[in-house]
Amino acid sequence: MEEWLVLLDKSHPIPLYEQIYRQMKQDITNHRIPVGKKLPSKRKLSEFLSVSQTTIELAYGQLVAEGYITAVPRSGYYVQDIEELAYTEAAEVNDVLTPVRPAAIDFSPGMVDPELFPFSKWRKVAKDVIDEHASHLLQLGDPHGDVELRNEIAMYLYHSRGVICTPEQIIVGSGTEQLIPLIIRILGEEAVYAVENPGYPLTHHVFDHHLRPAIPIPVDGGGMDVDALQRSLATVAYVTPSHQFPTGTVLSAPRRAALLNWASSNQEHIIIEDDYDGEFRYAGRPIPSLQGMDRGENVIYLSTFSKSLMPSLRIAYMVLPPALLKRYKGAFIQYASTVPRIDQHMLARFMAEGQFSRHLNRMRKVYRKKLQMLTEALIPYEPAIAYSGDEAGMHIIVTVHKQQPESELAEIALQAGIRVYSLQDYQSGHATGSPSFLLGFGGLNEHQLVQGIEKLMKAWNIQKAEQR
Known about the structure:
Layout: H1 16-29, H2 42-49, H3 53-65, E1 69-72, E2 76-79, E3 105-106, H4 119-129, H5 147-161, E4 170-173, H6 176-187, E5 193-197, H7 201-209, E6 214-220, E7 223-224, H8 226-231, E8 236-239, H9 253-264, E9 270-274, H10 290-293, E10 299-304, E11 316-319, H11 322-331, H12 341-352, H13 355-378, E12 385-388, E13 395-400, H14 406-415, E14 418-419, E15 421-422, E16 436-440, H15 446-459
Parallel strand pairs: 3-14, 5-6, 5-8, 8-9, 9-10
Antiparallel strand pairs: 1-2, 4-11, 6-7, 10-11, 12-13, 13-16, 15-16
InterPro entries: Aminotransferase_I/II_large, HTH_trans_reg/aminotransferase, PyrdxlP-dep_Trfase, PyrdxlP-dep_Trfase_major, Tscrpt_reg_HTH_GntR, WH-like_DNA-bd_sf, WH_DNA-bd_sf
Keywords: Aminotransferase, DNA-binding, Pyridoxal phosphate, Transcription, Transcription regulation, Transferase
Cofactor: pyridoxal 5'-phosphate
């Protein structure tokens, strides 16, 4: 389904069905999709884009109504010949992903605090790395990433996350979405993937884009339902065990053991452990990595510096078991690292001088305080609302006990100048239960957090308990 790679912005006020409709219409009018081409079924496209079948049905219905596609009974949908309309549509969707109503307060779960980044320390590291003796950094380096950075990552992982590996097992890349396709290739065409539901939609899209449809496995208060995984045909399980995205749950100890047992029961079974924000835990001891607990070498550990430092750095890494490392070397013998060497050496020095650890320690305290302020601002509105996922990470889940659709509540919030993120946008299939939303606190200051909750509750007509 590579022809139908639709880019969705689930925080955008334009409905998802209209985003799909507009982008498909432009692809048709620009002849990117040939006349007569059969479209994916509503079920397949809904799974591919991690949206409901109703959303796809609305988009297809509009395209049929306008004559861009036709519905053939018991066969499917096909692209129509609309040559005479092509010149009228070229620029219509250029602004689909451009926010038309910017929110004064954005509870994005993907933002970090930009005010506390140690610019002076980073500037010094940059100056030390970029000097007249750094000409060797202008040449291509190790395709797995420069050894200086991999050494630092290996030491950091062992002491902070319990990951046991050598620097040779580490592959550095520019984002997890760039590393996952490499994993897909070395695991082969026979691999069947299981993903958390709800889960991280970009990862699901990567699997589908590479023609690896993923089986959604339910997530509850204990994390991924491993019993459901065992009943499935999956051979590879993609999980976020330390802080499940988006629910914030932690994979329970019994399920960790069951998941590792599942992996060790078959040599083809692999766990992809995405530890995207494992550095930030606020209650109890740090959760050990599955990789460190694994004895059968069945876990691929995946992480990034996006949350711990900055999203724009675009440096991620994976730790491959020895058997898969050998396979990786054979498959990517001509591969060149996608991360600039200067950036790698700046980060390596930043870590070697202890600046990374100091920055993390500082940000843990800052985010813990922000989390406390956020939850304290929510408590007076209980039990009309409830929150969860407050043990780790940089967002929580707020459940609203109202008989209103999530989309309607999100729109009401946006009209009040507040952007929240619907949990159902991260789910495959029909959402059930009370409306729930992700509230990120990393990119907001303390005043914005308190003011944002007050304005949000007012917009949703939820009063404090003492006022009811």
